[in-house]
Each structure stands twice: as C-alpha cells, then as structure tokens.
User: Fold these one by one.
Assistant:
Number 1:
Amino acid sequence: MKRILIVDDEINIGLLLSKFLIRNGFEVSTSTSGSVAMELLAKDHYNLVLCDFRLEDTDGREMLRKIKAAYPATGVIIITGYSDIKLAVELIKMGAYDYITKPLYPDEILNTINKALETQEVLSKSFPESNTSSVKNEKNAAANLPDEFIAGDSTASKDLLRQIEIIAPTNYSVILTGESGTGKESVAKAIHMKSNRRDKPFIAMDCGSLTKELAGSEFFGHEKGSFTGALYTKIGHFEMANGGTLLLDEVGNLSYDIQAALLRTVQERKVKRIGSTKEIDLDVRIIVATNENLMEAIQKGRFREDLYHRFNEFSIHLPPLRKRERDILLFAQSFLDMANRELNRNVEGFSQEVIDCLLTYNWPGNVRELKNVIRRATLLTEGNQIPLKALPLEISTFAKVSAIETAVGNLQSRENSRDLKNAAHEAEYETIIKVLKEVNFNKTKAAKILNIDRKTLYNKMKAINLE
C-alpha cells in the first residue's frame, strides 16, 4: 500500500484529504507543521508528500529542499493558491513533481497523485541505499532498469537490451514500434533510467485518448481564463518533462493540426502555454511509441513526414512474445515473484500442465497479457504450484482448440466430394467439436448432450485424430 504524508496547517483540509485518500486505498499520515512532517519522514518511509506552500513554521520551497536532500526517492506535490502558481512552477524546476491548487477537486488530486506515484516509482530506482559503497552505486546506476523491464534470454531480448545500452546515453529521439502489450513503455523507462536524465522527470502521455480540443492544453498547458473552462493554470506535459524524458504513446492518433504545433515545439525547443505570450525553453528528450506503421500513415496523409523524421533519429522494434519463446517461462517466473510480493503469497512455480500451456499459447496480448494471467493465477492458487484450473479457459484449452482446427481441416480435405454421406459426416463432426468446446472438453458432459455413450464419442473423436 502506498503511503502519503499530508502537510497542511489548515486542520480541516488535512482531515478531508486524509479521509478521501484512505477511501481510495492509500495509507495516510498528516502534519500541521514542517518540523513535525520532517520527524514523521525520519521515522517512516513515505512514497509521496502533499505539502501546502504556506506553513506557519516554513514554506514549500524549504520543505522541498529538505525532503529532496534527505529522502530523494520521495515524491513531492505542492498545494497552493492561485496567487502562488509562479512559485509552484519554480518548485517543479527544483524537483517537485507537480502542484494542485485550492480549492481542491477530488478527481484532479487523485489523477495527479497516481501519475506522481507512477513516475516516482521509476525515479526512485536512481537513488541507491545509503549504506552502499560509491563504486557499487555507480554500477547500480549503470545497470538500473525499471521493475517492469525484464531482461530476457532470447536472441531478440539480448538485441533489445544492447540497443537500449547504445541509445540511452545519447539525446537522440527514439521511435519504439511493436504490437500492443510488447512493453514499449517499460523500454522507454529503461532508456530514461540508463540516461544522464535519470534524476529528472519521466512523463508518459497517452496520445490515443486525446481529443483535438484537449491535445493543445495537455501538450503545452494553459493560463487561467484563456478559454471557457480554464479555471486554473495548467502545466503541459512538455513543461512537466523539462530536463527529462517525454514518452508520446500512440502518437499516430494525433490530429494533423496538433502534429503541426508539435513539430514547431520539437524544432524550436520552446513551448508557450495557451493564453500566454511567454516562451519557455525546453530540454526534453522525446520517445515515441506506436503499434501503427507510421510510414503507411504518411502515405495515407494521416501523419506528417517531417514530424516523423524529427522523431526517427533512432528506432527500436519490439518483437511479439510468440517470437521470444525462450523468454516466456523466464517472464512468467518474474511475474510470479512480483505477484507473490504484491499478494503476500508464496507460490513457488508452475505445474507441468501449466508450463506446457504457457509455451503453446500464442499470446496475442504479449507481455501485458502474460503478466495479467500470472497475477490472476497467483491469486487463485492455494498450493505451492499454479494448477491448470487457475489459467483462463482460452489459454488452458488453446492446444485442444488448435487440435480441433487441424482436425476440421483434415476432415474437410479428406471429404472433397460433396455427396450426401460426406456432408452428413462433416456436419456430425462439427457438432461434436462445437459441444466439446462448450463443455471445456469434458467428454462425459459432451456425450450426454450429444445423446451418445462415451465409447461412441471416443471412437468418433479417434476417427478425426482428436483423442
């Protein structure tokens, strides 16, 4: 459970915030002064601090300086009034993750906290334990990878890691391509963590969910009152990522107009909030992730060729999991270890039936699907090994379904003539196969539904090599 410390000298605000965050699954402590907050931080570990900018005994600037010096892995979000927004932006440059303005809106608070925790989880890997030697610290920094990145053993995985090692120390923009679920965001985080920007923000932006109206504000930010609904000043993703890395996920979904504005920002390395005349200098590394063929999108007039070439200083293709067979069991064991820690379980491994299924299944959802399957199976497992019944039906029956499809193909190839007898046989076997799927290959239930005995069913299955 993530732990949050609220620092606000207004007791009612601290109490309301605390209750709200507890209801949303966080463990929360509160303090009404900076000195007490530092004492709490010394006693316990906190993932995130929500600190009011104006406190009776100190201010947000001093609190941020102390927290980042003593607890660099702890994220900080500043709570401020509208009049302090300029200072809040300054604090972000000093290392605060973001700010939220009063009056506080629950959705905004929760969204900002979740994004901060996700980013801080990556950044925390940059700071070795205090009792580790400096030489070991350097090695850890060089080999540092986010938790979700698993270095596989296949040729494709080794080549992927080699490309990350090559490109990470540079400032090149990178295009990551591959099917959905292949781990493009974890590769982007790995590039960031192995770069000189590792102690700066890593900001991921899902371009696929952006409407044309929202895209400009999300990218570049806006000033309060710059358009209807702009109730507060907003920092855009480019500004949030300044000094660090910005991941643009599914960039091919952006409208042509936004692509033009994006091109200007990338070329000029400056950003201007909507409604502002002030330009902000940018030092941002851009990584683009897409499961779309951008060259095809260019040919169809949906993506700007000049923008593509701006991004394509280096490209990495992530192969699908089905082409990394040697990695499947390694990934599965790593995900099992993660699930054990998350669920406080002690599942040691997989039954042989499960291993066979994992290696046979084609994994259309790739690494993401494998991780979700293992987490679910760990939750359902009561013994030391994950049993076959803990797997989803589409995985546990995949080999049988494949055998059925082969059997149907063999049947149809044998029965080329369309006489009545062959048509009747084909219809019979299709009915048998359909019922077997419906009852998850329970032959007793299938025989009962088909109104035949088990021996007859076995003989008919044997006739099409489906035993």
Number 2:
Amino acid sequence: MRTPVTIIGAGLGGLTLARVLHVHGIPATVYEAESSPAQRAQGGMLDIHDYNGQLAVEAAGLMDEFHAIVLEGRQALRVLAPDGTVLMDKADDGTGGRPEVQRGDLRQILLDSLPAGTVRWGHKVSGARTLGEGRHEVTFADGSTVLTSLLVGADGAWSRVRPLLSTAIPEYIGKSVVEFYLFDADTRHPAAAKTVGGGSMIVPTPGREIFAHRETGDTLHTYVGLSEPQDWFAAIDFTDAAGATARIAEEFDGWAPELTALITDGDTAPVLRPLYALPTGHRWDRVPGVTLLGDAAHLAAPNGEGANLAMLDGAELGNALAAHPDDIEAALTEYEQAMFPRSTEVPTFEGAEILGIDSGDTTAQGLIKKDR
C-alpha cells in the first residue's frame, strides 16, 4: 500500500514534490506556516535552468503553464564597472536555456495543479520527533500534531525537520544583501532603467556589488551585496528607511549616479537579508521514514542554483517514491545518493574569468545567475 507523504513547507521544492506525487497517484499533504498563498510577497525573478529546474517542471507535467509565465527578453545581461563602463552586454536572442519567471507566478501554477486541500495553511511547525519504525510526530505551534510514516522537510534554511537527521545549523557567510525596488522606472527613473536594460545588470567588485533586474512591467528590483559582519549591519537602524538607505549608499560613494540611483531612489524601505549556509557537502545517515530537500538539505551561499535544485529534489524524490511504492527506504536511499553530490556541484558562470570574478566566488556568480 502506498503511504501518504507528509511534506513540511509549501515552497517550490515541497510543491513540486506534491505535484509529482499527484501525477503518480500518490497522496500527499503539505503543511505551511503561512496563513495563505498571499500572506507575503514571494520574492523576485528566477531563471529556471534547462538542466535542473525545467526537468522538474517537465516531471510535474506543467511545461505549457511554465511557458505561459516566462517573461520574454529577461535573459539579457549587462555587466558594468562602478564608473558605468559597460564590460559586457549580452542580448536575449531567445535561445538561452534560463528563461525568467516571477517566483510568485511559478509557485501559483504549482498550487493550481494540486487537488483542493493538499496544502494546509497556517500550520507552523514547532518540532518533530521520531516514534520508531519509520514513524514521526510533527507538532504545530497551536499544539496540534500529526503522525506520519513518511516525513519530508521542505521547510527551508531553519528547518524544524532537519534535527531528526543532522545537528548542522546554518552559519552566516560574511555577506548580506539589501533589497530595493524602483517602480515605473522607465518614466520615473529613466537613467537607472536605461542602465539596467531589458534584463539584468550587475556591478561586481570585491566586497561590494549592485545587481538589478527588470521584473514584470518596468519594475526594477535591486540587490546590494555587502561583505560585512553582522555587527556592521546591526549598527544600522533599518526601521529608519531614509537613514538606512543613506548609510548603504555611502558604501558606493564615487560610483556612477545612474548606479547609485538604484539605491537612493528606491520606492520601498530597504530590506536586509543576511546570507547563511550549511556546511559544504552536508549529508546525514539514513534515518527511516524522513528526508530533506532544498535549503533544508543543502542551504548554500547564492550560487544561481537554489530554487532550481529544490525543484529537482522534489521531482526526483517524487519519482523515486513512485518507482518504489512498496519500499520507502529504497526510494529515500536512491534519492539521497543522487541528491548529496548534486547539491555540491555549482556550474561556473561562463564570463567569470573575463570579468575578474573568482571561480570560487559563488555569491557574485549567483547574483549574475539571478536565482536568489
């Protein structure tokens, strides 16, 4: 008898798993802390790669829906020096293998593909414990519990399921990103809009980066990368939007005004996002009835692969369970043996050497690849 699957987390990885299981007729329930799909914004753009993320979309049977949300022209890439000199200007000729979509749109097509009631919203996990014989109990913040014989932690960096398998805790990587938005950029911020172009733009320098991309319409989404300890950011009062913006802009004094405008002209309060990672090569011994996927399993510094890998994890786990319907442990072993090495393989950005980006600087490459 096929065992229903309990998935913690309704991100892209967890939803992909639920969808692939549904395609194969295997029931699953997804528990999500957010109260609804609209509780918070789902982040910016994602480039979905033909060698991992798109394979997951295909396994989910959603390629037509995926093509319908692709934003044309967004694979264009410009790389500039701090003085505004263009170092690389690559047009989107329609042949690239990394089409861009809005993360929220991708999540929505996955949600729409699942039977009603698959996702149980408003279920924040407070802990999980092993009961033996492959069974586990998950406890929610409201005191309710659920018992399961197949538990999947798809609950991100601070997974509540991970402690069942590993003592690893994410550590700060020494860099944070501060986000800004510029709306109606073509009319209200024309110089910045022209500089970014129709796709993405990055200015990579040691310890200081500005990356921006054009989202739906003429919205510009800016990520400012700063290599500083957490105490440095703690000294900035981010509740004072104007003051925090001015402090971040100080770090780019002397840069071209069309670049610093991506910070100083922001239409939203700056949002600080510290970057964390699990130990490289994080893995665990097989524990009956439980596994992890996505950031819960292999949180890394931004490297252009995070969301894509999470989706591929979900698809491959779903396919493994479908291939071994009467042997959960065989399915989980097969999945983990493929997932562990895959999560450590980071393709090098083709222009890294030309642009002076160290091949090991996955954060700079990840900003170029626009996955995080």
